[in-house]
């Protein structure tokens, strides 16, 4: 090696090849620092990014700082400590500075050391650019796959609450955030956390609200993203959970001009800030998720409409076929009863007519129930009675029989209806506590009369083996 005109060329080539052989950014930077120290004989080397937030990186180091150089500030000139410092450019833009300190053997760094370091820094700039492109491509691929997975999950038939939880969970994992939360507008003009996903128990995150008038809220309601360096100290953050988190981004879930809510992705205090690439990819994910939520909602709406149309068809068939045939059969039985000569036969026919009338009432009640929308609170007295009776039937474990006599919805005033429902709930509560109940019949009769002859509405709740419970009020 003594006759070699460039005796340190092989180590330089080895360092250059080592730097260029890695695509992961942090590993690339570590190889640059290690190679610089090995090439120049430095005891200590650091690479400090000019903008840590761009790549989410902090200072990369190797070796032990010389005793005269403070460990936390290698860029500070220290007497009698040899220092070498060169910039690293990526696409002609400053990336950071490569600093060496403490030449082995105690001598100064030479001009040849500096020249070798500059060659290595040039190659490092190219390697860093390639690693950035590779990392951006990997991140983009992960976020695209995540958005596709969310879309598939939302369109597979999840409920609205499960859909929001899916978005929050997937976004938290993709962003490497401490939590993923969904906020939705409140009637008062604020926003409330309705879904939360966290590494640990989300605790009291759900239900946390942002009060109306908050600067952050104004941006979110306007469809603008909000990026925060430290949630605990940012004056714009006013929630009681802000002290738990550091860097955060809050992204509007907006599609087709509709603001569904906000996706917030806070990291823990002290965690690295979000990079520009992460912010952009998360924003694209939020837009895709919002569109998927809208499409999922539209799909659920179409499915519900199909169910209602099918139920309307069944109700029409019941009314046009079953009720009419039962009515005709009853008329024939009544005619036969009038002609019957034997008392026993007449009594049997009378009982059959009564049973048919009762069956017609129950079928009509079933038709009415089919025409109701179960997701909405019923507005009519008939619907509210059916809802209360269905709840008791679910507890008892068998269907209840409900009959309505007369125009219930038009005759019973709202105040009287409220009292009737209160009496019904009490009677049903008593019935569900009885261990031997196998049959439950509820009758609301608006053709009843009081002893003084005044028209009345009468509620009767009957269970087998027990006297009926009766309540009535004047109309």
Per CATH, the class of the largest domain reads Alpha Beta
CATH-defined superfamily of the largest domain: GAF domain
Percent helix, as a range, is: 40-55%
Please count the beta strands (DSSP E, at least 2 residues each). Answer: 14
- What pattern of helices and strands is seen along the backbone? HHEHEEEHHEEEHEEEHHHEHHEEE
Order of strands, main sheet, comes to: 7-6-5-10-9-8
**Distance linking N and C termini:** 116 Å
Walk me through the structure.
Keywords: Kinase, Transferase, Two-component regulatory system. It comes from Streptomyces echinatus. One of its GO terms (molecular function) is protein dimerization activity. Pfam families: GAF, GAF_2, HisKA_3. Residues 46-77 are annotated as: Disordered. By secondary structure, this protein is an alpha+beta fold. It folds into three domains: 9-137, GAF domain (Beta-Lactamase); 157-292, Beta-Lactamase, CATH 3.30.450; 379-475, Histidine kinase-like ATPase, C-terminal domain (Heat Shock Protein 90), CATH 3.30.565.10. The chain has eleven helices and 14 strands. It has helices at 9-20, 25-40, 52-55, 111-154, 160-175, 215-221, 276-339, 343-370, 381-396, 408-411, 414-433; strands at 42-49, 60-63, 83-90, 93-103, 179-185, 191-198, 209-210, 226-228, 245-255, 258-268, 401-405, 440-449, 455-463, 469-474. It has a six-stranded antiparallel beta sheet, sandwiched between helices. A hairpin with a 2-residue loop joins strand 3 (83-90) and strand 4. Helix 4 packs parallel to helix 7 (276-339). The N and C termini lie far apart (116 Å). Residues 1-5 and 70-79 have low confidence and may be disordered.
